[in-house]
């Protein structure tokens, strides 16, 4: 995450330094100084606001309501992340608020794991109405010398990030096509006078006996020619293969190796 500056609020307008981050992710710090004074002078629904800062080519602000943003959360601190520009098309954004000392919540993978919200001109603000109870904050380690610092991590989620569609597996069809074409076959079975071309790697994967015979220490120089399968008729071999082929055409040519 790239550093997008720091805003200090205490008396009047925010001061500090905002950095324009062109990268798709970054973080901004909101330092709330003289918390007791701000709490006493800011009514329910009133807020302090960060400087505007840029991440991913878009301008943002952080809003902090020390006495809650509405009457039903007057005993809490409310925090909101706001798009500070007009945007007709929605922006999918993953964001997170944490206190400056909550390092485990500031890893980029932690932010990327969050569900993205859709920011637009019609819905520019998302956040937490009850970010933290005010009395809990005042008793916590996060409030030091009447001051606390909020870190806001931002990741602009791309269309690719949000809408990756994994196609259904086509390996079954690919194996079927491979077996039907007999391309790459390197071993032949003779069952009651009928030949079955096969791929030794598939046979080895399906049978420990064939693995030892075809790939292991039991492998003989004649294995590359024809292997006679005794005490089995070709019709029976085909039926056994079909019962293990999972409906895949051509798979029966090698499936009987499991028996």
From TrEMBL:
- GO biological process terms held by the UniProt record: protein ubiquitination
Q: What is the annotated signal peptide range for this record?
A: none
Which SUPFAM superfamilies does its entry note? Answer: POZ domain, TRAF domain-like
| Superkingdom, taxonomy of origin | Eukaryota
According to UniProt, this protein's pathway is: Protein modification; protein ubiquitination
PANTHER family named among the record's database cross-references: (BREAD WHEAT) HYPOTHETICAL PROTEIN (PTHR26379:SF522), BTB/POZ AND MATH DOMAIN-CONTAINING PROTEIN 1 (PTHR26379)
Q: What is this protein called?
A: Protein roadkill
Organism of origin: Aegilops tauschii
């Amino acid at each position: 995450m790239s550093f997008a500056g720091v805003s200090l609020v205490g008396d009047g307008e925010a001061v500090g330094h905002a950095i324009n981050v062109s990268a798709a992710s970054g973080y901004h710090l909101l330092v709330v100084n003289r918390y007791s004074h701000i709490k006493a002078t800011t009514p329910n629904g009133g807020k302090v606001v960060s400087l505007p800062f840029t991440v991913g080519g878009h301008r943002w602000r952080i809003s902090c309501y020390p006495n809650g943003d509405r009457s039903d959360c007057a005993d809490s601190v409310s925090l909101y992340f706001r798009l500070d520009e007009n945007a007709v098309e929605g922006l999918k954004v993953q964001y997170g608020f944490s206190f400056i000392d909550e390092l485990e919540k500031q890893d980029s993978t932690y932010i990327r794991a969050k569900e993205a919200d859709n920011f637009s001109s019609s819905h520019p603000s998302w956040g937490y109405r009850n970010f933290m109870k005010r009395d809990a904050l005042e008793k916590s380690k996060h409030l030091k010398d009447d001051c606390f610092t909020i870190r806001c991590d931002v990741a602009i989620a791309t269309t690719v990030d949000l809408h990756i569609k994994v196609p259904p597996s086509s390996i079954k069809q690919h194996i079927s096509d491979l077996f039907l074409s007999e391309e790459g076959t390197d071993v032949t079975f003779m069952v009651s006078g009928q030949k079955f071309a096969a791929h030794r790697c598939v046979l080895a994967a399906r049978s420990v006996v064939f693995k030892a015979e075809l790939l292991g220490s039991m492998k003989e120089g004649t294995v590359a020619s024809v292997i006679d399968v005794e005490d089995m008729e070709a019709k029976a071999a085909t039926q056994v293969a079909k019962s293990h082929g999972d409906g895949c055409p051509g798979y029966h040519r090698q499936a009987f190796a499991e028996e």
